[in-house]
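From the thread on structure requests for the teaching lab: each student submitted one protein with a one-line request. Submission from student K.M.:

"Model SFRICE_036243 from Spodoptera frugiperda, tokens only."
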Amino acid sequence: SVATYVAGKDEILIHRLEKTENFDFYDCVKSFTLQSDQWMLLERDSLPENHIVILDIKEFTLMLIAKSNVFFFQKFILYLLDAMPVHLTQVHVVNCPSFYEYMYGLIKGALPQNIRDIIHFHTDHMGLHQHIDKKYLPIEYDGEAESLVEQSQFWIKEIYEKRSFYMNDDLWKADVNKKVNKKAAAVDTSMSGSFRTLAID
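Reply posted by the TA:
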């Protein structure tokens, strides 16, 4: 599930895996991408100045990792960092299992140093209170904001309402017939004559 919370001029993005039964790595990536697209479609006066990301990995297991494509996930993270209009200032990984260092090691090499420097790991959610005001956190994290479950339902409803938009293949598939012909579009940079015959007024 994905939830967003306004925190002054900043925005908090929370990602949490709800169920692990019938887990499919690529379905999870597709779902996250859908929610990201919907997030960008939201009407707003301006984008938040900064973003705080919270990753809840309570349900993650070694079996789950074995079912995932780590190399694909590395590329997906880089895509998000380059393509999403966000300015990350904090990343919090909460409810970390005992093997979280192993998990982090699988993707650490793909992360830029400036991102590594802002990542914080917490064995539970209480560590969040040292960095984020409780009034901006959901009740699941002992905060005062709307429940994660309610927020998740909001996103699902929004996506379903735009189902026809997302199902339109014409929006997502490239038309190879419109591809620019490199030879035809090339600029002629050749010069006739020589510098010896160059006349300057």
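TA comment: Residues 2-174 form a domain with the Phosphatidylinositol Transfer Protein Sec14p fold (CATH 3.40.525.10). The mean pLDDT is 86.
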